[in-house]
Amino acid sequence: MGKHFISRYLYIFYCFVFILHIINVFLESETMNDTIGWFALVMLVVSFAGASRLFKILGMAFLFVGGTVYLTAGQSIIAIPSLFTSNMSLLVLLSMLPWMNSVVKSGRFDKSLNSLLHVNAKDLGSLYPRSSAITLTLASFLNLSAATISQDVLKEQLQTLKKDVRDSFIGTSTLRGYTLALLWSPLEILLAVTIFTTGVGYVSLLPWLLLIAGITFLLDSLWGRFYYRKYNYRLDREVNIDKKALIKKIAHLLLALILFLVLVIAIGNNLNLDFIFTVTILIFPFSLVWSIVMKRFKSFWTIGWRTWIEKTNTMQNFVVLFLSLAFFANSINDTPFLLFIQQPIIALAEYPFIIFVIIQLIFIGLSMFGVHPIATIGMLSGIVAVLIELMNPLSLAIVMITSAIATLTVGSYGLVVQLTSNNTGQSPYRITLNNLPYALIFGGIGSFVGYILL
After folding, report:
1. End-to-end CA distance of the chain
2. Cα(307)–Cα(327) distance, rounded to whole angstroms?
3. Disulfide: which of 198, 303, 311, 378 matches 325 by Cβ 3.0-4.6 Å?
4. For 429-438, b where at least 16 C-beta lie within 10 A, e where not — what string?
5. CB atoms within 10 A of CB 293
6. Which chain positions lie within coiled-coil regions (predicted)?
C-alpha cells in the first residue's frame, strides 16, 4: 500500500527538486547545489525500487565503480551529494517533453498526417517513402508516440498482405523515419546528452545533422522503393482526403517547429543559457500559447496534465541512470582510472576515422545487449574528454549522435524495438536483423561527415 502511494505521487517530489534546480541555474548557489545533491540521493533511493532490472544493474555498476575510484583517490565524503547534480537538467528536460506531445495531439496533427497513409499507392515501394516521411514529421514533436501511431495505421491498412511482408515493411519504414527525426529534433534527449557531453552548440550541429538526415532519408527511400515495389496491394475502400486542409496542417506544424527553434536559439543567446536548459524552460509556455492560438487549451490541459503526471511518475529508470551516471563521471575526473581508460584511444589519435568506427560499433554492440545509448555515452565520457583535445569537437559530436540514434533501430531490448515487436507480433531479433545494415550505413554517414570536418 505504502509503495503504491509513493509511486502514485512521486511526481510531486520530483517536481519540487526540478524547480529547485531551475532556480539554482540562475542563482548559481553552491549551498543550494549541495541541498539539491541531498535531494538527488533521496530521489535515487526512492526510484531504485521502481526501476527495471537492467537499469538497476547499470546504476549499481556506475555507483560501485565511481564510489571505488572516488574513495581510493582520498576525496572528501562530504562532497559526494554534489556529484549527483550535474545531470539534473537532463531529467528536468525529460519531464517537460509530454507537454509538447500533448499540444500536438490536442491539435489533432497526428490524425491529419496519418490520413496520408490511407491514400492509394500502386505498390509498397511507392508507400515506403511516404510512411517514413510521415513518421519522421510526427516524431519531431511526438517522439515515441509517432512510431506507434504510424504502425497502428499501417497494420490496419496492410491486412491483406502476408504477415512477414507486412511486419518487415512496418519495422523498417517507421523505425527508420523515427530515427531521422530524433537526429536533429531539439526535443530528443540523446541529442541533448551529446551536446551536454561534448559542449558543442546546437546551432553548429543543426545544419550537419539535417544534411545527414536528408542523405540517409534519400538513400533509404530509394532502397525501400526498389525493395518493396514487387508487392502490390489495394485498399478495401476509397479514401477521400481534403488536400488543402492537410497542406495547411503540415504548414502549421512546420511553422511551429521553426518558430520553436528560433526562440530556443534567440533566448539562449540573449540570456546566455545552454541549449538543454533553454529548451526545458520554453517547452511549457510555448505549448500553452500554441494551444490558446489553436483554441485547444481545454483539450491540451486535459491531455497534458494527465500525461505529465503519468510520465513523471514513471521516470525511475532515467532517474537511476542519470544520477548514477553523474556520480560516475564526476568521480573519475582527474584520477588514474581515467588515464587508464584513455590510453587505447590516445594510441589511435593519428587515425581518427578508426576511432569513429570503433565508437559506432561500441554503440551498436552494447545496444544489442540492452545497454541504453545514454549509458554508453556515459561510459565514453572519460574518453570524450581526451578526444575533444585531439580533434574537432563538432566531428566527435556528430559521430556520437548518429551512432547513438542508429542504435534505436537495432537495440533488441530497446523500447522502440520492443514496442514494434509487440505491435506487429514479430521477434525483436528479426527487427534488429532487418535494420542492422541501415544502422551501420546511418552511423557510417555520420562518421564520414565527421571525418570531413576534422
Report:
1. 57
2. 30
3. 378
4. ebbbebbeeb
5. 12
6. none
Q: Which three cell numbers stand for residue 156?
A: 490496419
Furthest-apart CA atoms within the chain: distance in Å: 73
Q: What is the pLDDT of residue 5?
A: 56
Cα pseudo-dihedral 430, 137, 194, 387, rounded to 10: 80
Task: Please name the amino acid found at residue 15.
Answer: C
Phi, psi of 386 (to 5 degrees): -75, -45
Residues of the chain by 3-state class (helix, strand, coil), percent to 5: 80, 0, 20
**For 294-320, what is each residue's pLDDT tens digit?**
999 999 999 999 989 998 998 888 899
Are the beta carbons of 395 and 202 closer than 8 angstroms?
no
pLDDT for 14 equals: 94
Instruction: Provide the mean pLDDT of the chain.
Output: 85
In the structure, what pLDDT confidence band is assigned to residue 286 with cuts at 50, 70 and 90?
Answer: very high
Nearest to 258 by CA among 266, 248, 247, 268: 266
- Of 114, 133, 131, residue with least CA distance to 171: 131
In this structure, are residues 164 and 260 in contact, taking their beta carbons and an 8 Å threshold? no
Q: Please give the C-alpha separations between residue 302 and each of 10, 306, 361, 398, in angstroms, as whole numbers.
A: 20, 6, 43, 38
Going from the C-alpha of 444 to that of each of 18, 366, 417, 432, the distances in angstroms are 38, 17, 21, 17
pLDDT single digits (tens) 258-282: 898 889 889 988 888 888 888 889 9
Cα angle at 144 between 15 and 158, to 5 degrees?
155
